[in-house]
Specification:
two-stranded antiparallel ribbon; about 160 residues
Length: about 160
C-alpha cells in the first residue's frame, strides 16, 4: 500500500469537488512515484471519448486516443489525465497538433524512457485521420524508429 508521502501532489483522485476544465490546461496533469523504476514495463491508456474543436470551423471532432509509455521515476495519475484530455473539448487544433501536444506535455511531465500517442479520429468530410507521435530516450531510439515504421505500415495496409 502506498504511504501518504508517496501520494504528495496527487490532489484530484478522490476529490469530489473537482471542476471540469473549459480550456486546454496541461497544469491539470499530476504524477506519482514509480515504485518499480528498476523494472522496464509499459503503461497504456485507452481514451475512447476524446473531443476537440476544428480550429477553422469550430465544429466538434471526436477521437480515440491511445497513450503508451515506459516510465522512469514519475508516472501520470489517471484522473488528472482524464481532466487534461477533457480540457481539449473547447480547444481548437488539428488532430495532428492534438496528438503531438499530448505527447510533448506528457514527456515534459514525466520524462519517460519512451512514449507514444496515437489518435483514431472519426471521419470528417469522408476522411479519417490517424496521427501517431512518439519519442524515446537514447536507449530507446531503435524502439522509437520501429514503432513509427509499424504505425506507417499499419496505416497503408
Amino acid at each position: 500500500m502506498r504511504q501518504d508521502d508517496e501520494l504528495q501532489g496527487v490532489t484530484l483522485l478522490g476529490n469530489q469537488g473537482v471542476k471540469y476544465p473549459t480550456d486546454y490546461d496541461p497544469a491539470l496533469l499530476e504524477t506519482f512515484i514509480n515504485k518499480h523504476e528498476d523494472n522496464e514495463y509499459v503503461v497504456t491508456f485507452d481514451c475512447p471519448e476524446f473531443t476537440t474543436l476544428c480550429p477553422k470551423t469550430g465544429q466538434p471532432d471526436f477521437g480515440h486516443i491511445y497513450i503508451s509509455y515506459i516510465p522512469r521515476e514519475r508516472m501520470v495519475e489517471s484522473k488528472s489525465l482524464k481532466l487534461y484530455l477533457f480540457s481539449f473539448r473547447n480547444h481548437g487544433d488539428f488532430h495532428e497538433d492534438c496528438v503531438n501536444i499530448i505527447m510533448k506535455d506528457l514527456r515534459a511531465l514525466m520524462d519517460p524512457r519512451y512514449i507514444e500517442v496515437k489518435g483514431i479520429f472519426m471521419p470528417r468530410g469522408g476522411i479519417s485521420i490517424y496521427p501517431f507521435a512518439n519519442w524515446g530516450d537514447a536507449e530507446h531510439k531503435e524502439l522509437e524508429k520501429q514503432r513509427r515504421l509499424d504505425a506507417f505500415r499499419e496505416a497503408i495496409k
